[in-house]
Amino acid sequence: MDETFFASVRLEQAELSSGVKIELPIRYQDWSAIMAHFPVPEAAVRRLLPSSRLKPILYVPGTAILSMVAMEYRQIKGLAPYNEFGIMVPVLYEPKVNIPGLPLLFPHCFKLSGLYVHCLPVTTQAAYEVGIEVWGYPKIIAEIVFEDIGQMRRCRLRAAGKNILTLDVEKGATRFSKVNFHSYTVKGGQLLRTLIQTRGECNIARFRGGASFNLGDHPIAEELRALGIGKTAVERLYLTNVQSMLHPPGEFMSL
């Protein structure tokens, strides 16, 4: 673990309604993840977005992206370890142009790109409370477990005794990468845009499949099934030995 990543960050304190105080940014000292991006009809995914100001990033004309990511947070400053599963839509805020493909390949060139977080199950009450109160993340308490199946890393997501989905992502040789991205959430009648800084070992494979999902019988699964998500991933990621910082909301935008 490299503590120099966190050394120069300016900390601030937030107090939750429970009286619990936390330091921001939240500093994730060690975690791993699997992630995959799947094609989905643009018209369908627009129904998930809370504002017409947010436009889904397009893979090809008429086709957007739905992202699934499963994370194992093993060591965190001020919080007990927990697992998390994100169902998200890559978006642009009020883009002047929305050229298919380019924001996926060169996200750093698009100033207001980010991931709109549609659903974010977690495994602990503490993670649930801080995520909702500080950022408005749409969290639920769920079961999130991982296992290796040969060269695949698998995550099973369940809640209320029902299966939501299973995500399989192929592992691969990693190299050290630094990636900054932003999440979009809704809180207090505004869009919040939040910086997340990450660094760690990452394998990225584009346009090669290598990831799949199976939907269950939970209402979230039924909602996803109705979107008509494509089965072949357009990009997959396998991450390990990652550190990150989840900053306080940095931008407050009109819905």
Mean pLDDT: 94
What is the first-to-last residue Cα distance?
39 Å
What's the total number of strands? 15
Number of domains: 1
Low-confidence stretches: none
Largest sheet strand order: 3-6-7-8-12-13-15
Write the layout of secondary structure elements.
Layout: H1 4-7, E1 12-15, E2 21-24, E3 26-41, H2 42-46, E4 54-56, E5 58-60, E6 63-76, E7 82-93, H3 102-105, E8 113-119, H4 125-135, E9 143-149, E10 152-159, E11 162-170, E12 175-187, E13 190-206, E14 211-215, H5 219-225, E15 235-254
Parallel strand pairs: 8-12
Antiparallel strand pairs: 1-2, 3-6, 3-15, 4-7, 5-6, 6-7, 7-8, 9-10, 10-11, 11-14, 12-13, 13-15
Quick rundown:
Helix content is 12%, strand content 56%. With 255 residues, it is mostly beta strands. The strands form three sheets. Strands 3-6-7-8-12-13-15 form a seven-stranded mixed barrel.
How would you explain this protein's 3D organization?
This protein has 255 residues and is mainly β. The chain has one domain: Acetoacetate decarboxylase-like (Beta Barrel), CATH 2.40.400.10. 12% of the residues lie in helices and 56% in strands. The protein has 5 helices and 15 strands. The strands form 3 sheets. It has a 7-stranded mixed barrel with strand order 3-6-7-8-12-13-15. The protein has a 4-stranded antiparallel sheet with strand order 9-10-11-14, covered by helices on one side. Strands 1-2 form a two-stranded antiparallel sheet. A hairpin with a 2-residue loop joins β12 and β13 (190-206). The longest helix has 11 residues, at 125-135. 36% of the residues are buried. The model has no long low-confidence stretch (mean pLDDT 94).
